[in-house]
Amino acid sequence: SGYACEKCGFLTSQVIDNCPYCKDKADKVDYIVDLAIQRSLEQGAEIEVISGNEQFEKTGSIGAILRY
């Protein structure tokens, strides 16, 4: 679960009341990972599922490699 800002699209797994960017209300969602995947695909990202990696699981089981 996590929080999503409908106004600017900010997503987080942290508990927040308002978006730190646009200050609009952040809504609690039970499907934050699915939402993050959907938004990533909409932006042309490539998704890779990793399992069985203990170190990756300790860091929250989600990550990104960013290129600009």
Q: Outline, from the CA principal axes?
A: globular
Order of secondary-structure elements = EEEHH
Which value, in Å, is the CA radius of gyration? 13 Å
Tell me the quaternary state.
Answer: single chain
For the terminal residues, how far apart are their CA atoms?
29 Å
Helical region count?
2
Given helix and strand content, the structural type is alpha+beta
Name its key features.
3 strands, 68 residues
Overview of the molecule:
It is a single chain. The chain has 68 residues and is an alpha+beta fold. 24% of the residues lie in helices and 15% in strands. The chain is built from two helices and three strands, in the order E-E-E-H-H. It has helices at residues 32-42, 54-58, and strands spanning 2-5, 11-12, 26-29. It has a three-stranded antiparallel sheet with strand order 2-1-3, covered by helices on one side. Strand 1 (2-5) and strand 2 (11-12) form a beta hairpin.
Helices and strands in order, then pairings?
Layout: E1 2-5, E2 11-12, E3 26-29, H1 32-42, H2 54-58
Antiparallel strand pairs: 1-2, 1-3
